[in-house]
Sequence to fold (369 residues):
Amino acid sequence: MPTNNKNKHIYDKKIRNYEKEVIKFFVEYGKNKRSDIESHILAYILLREGQWLTQENIRELSLIFYETEFKKGISQGSISQILNNFVEYSVLNKRKLETKKNAFEYSMSGAFNQVMSSAIGYGVEEMEKYILFLKKKLASLEKIEYKSNEVEFLRVRLNERVKELIEFFIFHKALYEEMFKIPNDKKKNISKPEDLSDFQIKKSLREIERDIIEFIINCPLFRFGKMKGTHYPIIAYFFTRKRLTQEKLKELTGFSAGMVSEGLNYMLQEGYINLDKVKGIRVRYYELNSIAYYNYLHLFRIVKSNSELFTRLDAISSEIRAKRTELKDINGYRIINKRVKQFLNAKPVVEKLLISFKDAMEKFKHKPQ
Fold:
């Protein structure tokens, strides 16, 4: 039966301070697996073991814990969509509220470890979709017959880079499946080319590339914290073109010279691209060699910063233990204390991920291009 205590989901202020820290840890730890909003919603439910939360409850909690520069709280529409996604991937259970028409409440679908592995599985399912999307684009590219060197160069380059993206996702998916023991599967076929004019072929290639660029820009795996919104189209074109000049990037992105220059300088500084000065030519060429190496370098840095989050979590754990007599009878103490211990148990997994990502960097850094 649904709970009668309407405020049970809002803990005492003494506990809420620790809850805020645990949510912050969970959000930071979940970067590049989930959006911040998804992490917040999942954290609210994880920190309420044995309770069923309504969308209204989650909205109330978000007004306490979720705040950006522009707004406080998570919108009802976002809450509804994210909850439905988690239910679809068996991360959460859903049941109808008896007291209201067309209203539902949600809880964890199993024990903590099961839910966390389901959340990882959710990410693996997404990677399967990415692979399928890219295989479709590869099939479209392989249908095109070239009639000029310029068209063939772009087609071959796009073909190579899409294959690299697919290789990255297959490798990354397998890495997670091996580490977390998740089952896998899936395949796709390619059909014969049509006879098109040179102009049509070039147009078709650009349309395929635009779809791939949009996919890269919106893919959570490629959205990294410190990068600005204007950096994403630039890096996306390096994914598809590999080697570019500042002028070509201006043409492709529609950005000003200043915006392109700022993006290139950031990427050079971070070691994501290389500058290639050709003797006798004043034009500067910028190159992103291995897509997989770039991503594992990024992921390694993120996981390394995640590993540093455990220092703060250790401090919270010590503080909760020290104040046990004062806090133990307050609503929320038991579950917050339990989750802190469970999150600390993830430390060896993070250390294992660091080793795996470092190995992957070595594998793709030295791979012939």
User: Anything to note?
Assistant: The CA atoms of residues 36 and 129 lie 21 Å apart. The mean pLDDT is 84. Residues 115-288 form a domain with the Arc Repressor Mutant, subunit A fold (CATH 1.10.10.10).
